[in-house]
Amino acid sequence: MVIASEQLPHMSADELREAVQSLFKTLTFKQATIDKLTHENAYLKRLKFAAQSERFSAEQRSLLDETLDEDLQAVSDEIEQLASDDKPVRVKEQPKRQPLPAHLPRVDIPHEPDTTTCACGCQMKRIGEDVAEKLDYQPGVFSVERHVRGKWACAKCQTLIQAPVDVHIIDKGIPTTGLLAQVLVAKFADHLPLYRQEAFFGRAGLAIARSTLGAWVGSCGVQLQPLVDALKADILQHSVVHADETPVQMLKPGSGKTHRSYLWAYAAGAFEDTRAVVYDFCESRAGENAKTFLGDWRGSLVCDDFSGYKQLMAQGVTEVGCLAHARRKFFDLHASNKSQIAHSALEQIARVYDIEREVKELLPDERRRIRQEKSKPLLDALHQWMILNRQKITDGSATAKALDYSLRRWSALTRFLSDGQLPVDNNHIENQIRPIAIGRNNWLFAGSLRAGKRGAAVMSLIQSARLNGHDPFAYLKDVLTRLPTQRASQIHELLPHRWQPQIQFT
């Protein structure tokens, strides 16, 4: 709440008292947040500069160092954003940088005023220029952008003008959005930790310190978070959502050990128009994490039989089972001992999937009609067959467990029959989890909770871009270019399923 000085004489005592209380609450909240982030910043610095006392392998140490650099930069950016609302920004002394290598190709990008005619009517003369060099990267090729800002002066009235330079995602930094996009895609899509990228850039003839790369990733994570929040909001507007989770190790720096954390994945229904996925990094597998993410959302949740989802069902969320999970129980049983019961179950479930392939591209009403006509009789017969066979099987056996899994969840497993918008299984979200499982072999672990959440956010945008057929590098480069000047009310235009690249004329 902002009060202009000219408003004060026209406000009553009660209005002034209310305004002061509102401003005090706002100030208290911001200061508490700044104090929290400042404390976290100090803690991260202690970890970074006292890390030699921890017992890590060389590879583990490098991964921890880069996540600390990312976290430190992200916290600093958040503190600066909060403080800038109320206090004048203190200009930092820029460190002296080594000039960019002379052998790299240069591309001049001129910035000149729209008109060089002075307000007094005189024609200005060019008296010089300022040149700022930024390091650009196209896959496999380094180059330098030279932003040349001509200086124009009027000899008569001593007026000096220069064209402004576009706002950059990292103000006064050397990387272009192309280089930033490459670092993010390499780390979160190609699963290359920053210490490997540092070596890669070194072989290309340009040494970029790992701490610098980490600071870039941290800043980008903060800037991209509003986009991920908007992506989450879009997913939760749909009535059908997929959910799944996979373990990821997270480092506890104080002890030098890791513990099991989880990356949760949520996506709009497989038959929905919105092709998007959001990852949520959490310290545990507790059902409270899914409850927090979904909030007030009430719809059909496609998930497995994990108990963490059960409290959602008690609050009005409709459970939709995964037939692929039920099939997997019989597949494992058949693979281990060639069970005839498992073989028969697999054959009957296969007929249902044959029908699903037929109706995949149909409209929901038509899909529902065919399911009722063809799939329902098959599943009713399968249900009776399971009940009869279960009566003959000894409790506790592998066959009994496979049958019990399906019988216990039969209502959820067959809910897709009565709603053409529901998928038959949860394979859609499992396919979005697969890149995470591949990446774990390279990540080893997340260096902190903040690093895990930042990685989840960037991977949400990258994987959503892939789902929509976009090149993640081209998408992130364009988004990072446009984001600093994009209005908050139009942030949805940059979401992967709505994104249209800007046409550039050369």
Taking all Cα atoms into account, the compactness measure Rg is 29 Å
Classify the secondary structure makeup into a structural class: alpha/beta
Query: What's the tally of helices?
Result: 15
If strands are numbered along the chain, what order do they take across the biggest sheet?
A: 7-6-5-8-9
- Mean of residue pLDDT values: 85
H/E topology pattern? HHEEEEHHHEEEHEHEHHHHHHHH
Low-pLDDT stretches: 51-61
Shape: elongated
How far apart are the termini? 45 Å
Q: Helical content, roughly?
A: 40-55%
Summarize the main sheet. 5 strands, mixed
Task: Say how many strands there are.
Answer: 9
Instruction: Tell me what portion of residues adopts beta-strand conformation.
Output: 5-15%
Pfam families: DDE_Tnp_IS66, DDE_Tnp_IS66_C, LZ_Tnp_IS66, zf-IS66
Protein name: Transposase IS66
Organism: Albidiferax ferrireducens (strain ATCC BAA-621 / DSM 15236 / T118)
Explain this structure to me?
With 506 residues, this protein is of the alpha/beta class. Among the domains are: 13-83; 238-437, no CATH class. Helix content is 49%, strand content 14%. It is elongated and about 100 Å long. The chain starts with 12 loop residues before the first helix and ends in a 24-residue tail after the last helix.
